[in-house]
Amino acid sequence: MAHVYLQSPQEAGGLIEDLGRAKRIALDCEAAGFHRYSDRLCLVQLSTERTTYLIDPLAFDPADVLRGPLEDPDLPVVMHGADFDLRLLARDLRIRLRGLFDTQIAAQLLGEEALGLASLLESRFGVKLSKKFQRADWAERPLGEGMLEYAADDTRHLMRLADWLTAELAEARRLAWTKEECRALEAAAGGLPKEETPEDPVARIKGARHLSPRQLTALREALAWRDEIARAKDRATFRVVAEGPLIEAVAAHPRSVRELLAIKGFPPRLAEEAGASLVERIERVAQMRDDELRGYPRPERRGGTRITPDVEALAERLKDARNRKADELGLPRGTLLSNATLIEIARAGPRSLDALATVDGMRRWKAEALGEDFLKLIR
Q1: Multiple choice CATH, 302-378, 3.40.50.2000, 3.30.465.10, 2.70.98.60, 1.10.150.80
Q2: Less packed terminus of the chain by CB within 10 Å, N or C?
């Protein structure tokens, strides 16, 4: 199947006509987060039964062309690992996708161990996908023919894979499970982003927990300095400077660019161009009073309440029941139910199947699979 590259609304006539008669479509998105500061939507791959289209949202806004079909719950949209792509579509194109069939979810609920698209296509059809452009910068222009062909492969086989997995799901009586998970993913990821309290930037930094409050405050300054440079250069933050050299810098407290250059792994050009500002920020923290410093962030407890010994004991019994059922169904234990959800169930103490199904993190199919065992333990 050939592909058509669309870079203007004037070129979209064939796509509009094709979408008008399509019985289902396959969809994928490419973003630039690995290379760029912004993870903006850079390419939309869409296959119908006849043609694969590569749509350039950096050249024109395709929202009006795509919104109707993608928001039609009666038009199946096959995707693989759709979570992030659904959020991209909602944020960048204001499209809330409906009709999702996620082949990764389907494979997961069949107990597949290798869930990547390449692995599934090779195991089912002997199709081998190239990995040449796996880390490509999709924001660069022009896109070479090799990149376009690579992108087209992400959707041109999806409908055939969906057919195969649907047959397996039906035989295993798990098709309804997949549909429920897909509807939940639509609801969670398809909404427009909400305002959230910014996360403390040091919370995800490996090794930060062992720093002193003064060093942690300096690290926050260093991360803010890196973020400003990354934003100005439109470059992923780790491509400006890795976190390890920043931790080394705040621990060493360099007093000059020369001392900054001596830190292993710190990019020399970056130190020469912008290092003076970082040295100044670190020195400013060194002059702060102790009461102005911030320590390591305390993680918030889920649900906001302490786990009591009774709740913890019940959660352990529920975990044993979950593990037995997962092994019986041939599913990974976390796929069947996460440990965090087990704690929420132990806290809530539901006394009926309906009540169990309303616990955060549950699904109806999970409640039906686990309900009898769980309710016995709770009662």
Answers
A1: 1.10.150.80
A2: C
Domain boundaries, the chain: 3-189, 201-292, 302-378
User: Does 190 score more than 80 pLDDT?
Assistant: no
CA neighbor of 172 nearest in space, from 115, 119, 107, 125: 107
Class of domain 3-189 as given by CATH: alpha beta
Tell me, yes or no, if the two domains 3-189 and 302-378 fold the same way.
Answer: no
Find all residues with CB under 8 Å of 211, minimum gap 6, and list them.
219, 247, 250, 251, 296
Is the per-residue pLDDT at 301 higher than 50? no
**Phi/psi at 208 (5° precision):** -70, -30
Predicted model pTM: 0.84
Query: Quick one: three-class SS letters along 201-238?
Result: HHHHCCCHHHCCHHHHHHHHHHHHHHHHHHHHHCCCHH
- State the burial class of residue 232 (Cβ atoms within 10 Å of its Cβ: 0-12, 13-18, 19+): exposed
Say if residues 92 and 85 touch (Cβ distance below 8 Å): no
